[in-house]
Amino acid sequence: MLEIKNLHARVADEGTEILRGVDLTVAAGEVAAIMGPNGSGKSTLSYIIAGHEDYEVTEGDILYNGQSILEMDPAERAATGVFLAFQYPLEIPGVPTMTFLKTALNSQRKARGEGEMTTPDFIRRAKAAAAELRIDMAMLKRPLNVGFSGGEKKRAEILQMALLEPKLSVMDETDSGLDIDALKIVADGVNALRSPERAFLVITHYQRLLDYIVPDTVHVLYKGRIIRSGDKDLALQLENEGYGQIIGEAA
């Protein structure tokens, strides 16, 4: 589903190179975890997959279902089924969360040539999905992420993902700032969406998230390159031993 080939990228305004030859393949139905020290390029990788304009690809390619997406803008990528959950979700004052979710869903449906979902149908769907994530509907009447706790912001993002039903979900440190109860709820929401037709790229610092979202593969990103890949046991090794040995072996 996702194939990244020799990806080099830099900060567009500064020219600072961040990714230095990333190679990665994620199959349909797979949950792949990306781990690595701070400054390794993990978040940059997620932004580039989503099409963030602050980064420039200088070499390599990103294929989604066999098609290069580098020339697609973020909206086009989203319409094809690419979703990014941010480490720090943005606040949008004045826009009720429910309005945002309905607009996002219908924008994607329109881009795919599908009819817009009516308000009653959307409300029924949103209520069902919110109940699964233990989200109070009153929260969805509030401006998007304004005054939300860290856990509420992440639940709202997982709700958006549940409604949009993307084929490729890229999750940038979704566990950041969550207590254990919120982490379990978010993980349950992700696990409920796992399917043979959907892939996840889960970016995290910590093994604790991978206790609840068990990955099929784990990849270590360091200085803009993947230096080691393995199964879920690799995450346990990193938790127990840190990155020092793996970095030393790759040097």
TrEMBL record:
Which Gene Ontology molecular function entries are recorded, alphabetically?
A: ATP binding; ATP hydrolysis activity
Top-level taxon in the UniProt lineage: Bacteria
UniProt keyword Cell cycle, yes or no: no
Check the record and name the PROSITE patterns matching this protein: ABC_TRANSPORTER_1, ABC_TRANSPORTER_2
Sorted alphabetically, which CDD domains does this protein's record hold?
A: ABC_FeS_Assembly (cd03217)
Kindly give the Pfam families that the UniProt entry links to this protein: ABC_tran
Annotated ranges, domain ABC transporter: 2-248
**InterPro entries attached to this UniProt entry:** AAA+_ATPase (IPR003593), ABC_transporter-like_ATP-bd (IPR003439), ABC_transporter-like_CS (IPR017871), FeS-cluster_ATPase_SufC (IPR010230), P-loop_NTPase (IPR027417)
Which keywords, in A-to-Z order, does the entry hold?
A: ATP-binding, Nucleotide-binding
Q: Which family does it belong to?
A: Belongs to the ABC transporter superfamily. Ycf16 family.
| Protein name, UniProt field | Fe-S cluster assembly ATPase SufC
Question: What does the record give as the organism's lineage?
Answer: Bacteria, Pseudomonadati, Pseudomonadota, Alphaproteobacteria, Hyphomicrobiales
